[in-house]
Amino acid sequence: MNFSVRAHQGLLIMMRFHKLDGPFCRSCGLSVVRQMTTRTLCLGWWSPLSLVAFTPFTLIWNLMAHLKFSKLPPSAPAPGRQPLDEGLPVLRRPLAYVTLIPVAWAVWVVTGMIMHYS
C-alpha cells in the first residue's frame, strides 16, 4: 500500500520534518510507523510551534497510517527480501515516554497563566 509515514523533530527555534513514502507491506508499514512515531514522541515537542501544531498533526497522520497498515493481510515474504520486524508497540517503548516532560511543562505553564489571570 502506498502511504507516507512522517516524523517531526522540534528544535527550540527550528524544526525538522521527515517523510518516508513507498509501497509498504503490513509488517514494513507497521515497523516504520512505530519507529517514526516513537521518534516524534521523543523529539517532536521541543519547540513552541511543534508543541501545539506540528507534532499533534504528525501523530494523527501516523495513526491513520497505522490503521491503514493494520487492515492489510499478513505479509508474505518476497523472494530474496525479509520484511522488517514490527518491534514493540509504541507505548511499550521507553523513548515514547520522553513526551511527558514537555507536555507536563506546557500544562504547568498554562495552569500558571490561568491561575495568575483569574
Give a written overview of the molecule.
The structure is a single chain. The protein has 118 residues and is mostly helical. The protein is 50% helix and 12% strand. The chain has 3 helices and 2 strands; from the N terminus they run E-E-H-H-H. It has a two-stranded antiparallel ribbon. A hairpin with a 2-residue loop joins strand 1 and strand 2 (14-20). Helix 1 (26-43) runs antiparallel to helix 2. The longest helix is centred in the middle third of the chain and has 23 residues, at 48-70. It is elongated and about 65 Å long. The model has no long low-confidence stretch (mean pLDDT 90).
Brief summary:
With 118 residues, the chain is mainly alpha-helical. It is built from 3 helices and 2 strands, in the order ββααα.
- Strand pairing plus helix content: what structural class? mainly alpha
Give the CA-CA distance, first to last residue.
52 Å
Beta-strand percent range: 5-15%
The proportion of residues forming helix, as a percent range, comes to: 40-55%
Gyration radius over CA: 17 Å
Give the strand order, joined by hyphens, for the main sheet. Answer: 1-2
Gross morphology is: elongated
Give the biggest beta sheet: 2 strands, antiparallel
Order of helices and strands: EEHHH
What attributes characterize this protein structure?
about 120 residues; mainly alpha; two-stranded antiparallel ribbon; 3 helices; 2 strands
